[in-house]
C-alpha cells in the first residue's frame, strides 16, 4: 500500500519517518523500534500514535514509501 510519509533528515541527510498518511488519516510515529537496510531499500518498524505497529519500506531509488507489514497493538 503506497503511503505519504513526513520525514526528518538528520545531520547525514538520512530520512527517518516522523508521520505518515493512510488515506486521509495522519499517524504520528511515536517511536522507531527497529530499522534495517538493503542497498536501495530501507525499512523502519514503527509504533504509531494509534497504538499499532507498522513496517514502513522506503525505496530510495524510486523515492516511494509503502506499508510492508502491520500488527495491531495491545489496547
SSE-based structural type: mainly beta
Termini separation comes to 24 Å
Helix content: under 10%
Main beta-sheet annotation: 6 strands, antiparallel, barrel
How many H/I helical runs?
Answer: 0
Write down the overall mean pLDDT: 89
Describe the 3D structure.
The chain is mainly beta and 75 residues long. 0% of the residues lie in helices and 69% in strands. The protein has no helices and 6 strands. The chain has strands spanning 2-9, 15-22, 25-37, 41-48, 53-59, 64-71. It has a 6-stranded antiparallel beta barrel. β3 and β4 form a beta hairpin. It is globular.
Summarize the structure.
The chain has 75 residues and is mostly beta strands. The protein contains no helices and 6 strands.
Q: What brief labels describe this structure?
A:
single chain; 75 residues; mainly beta; 6-stranded antiparallel beta barrel
Helix/strand layout:
Elements: E1 2-9, E2 15-22, E3 25-37, E4 41-48, E5 53-59, E6 64-71
Antiparallel strand pairs: 1-2, 1-6, 2-3, 3-4, 4-5, 5-6
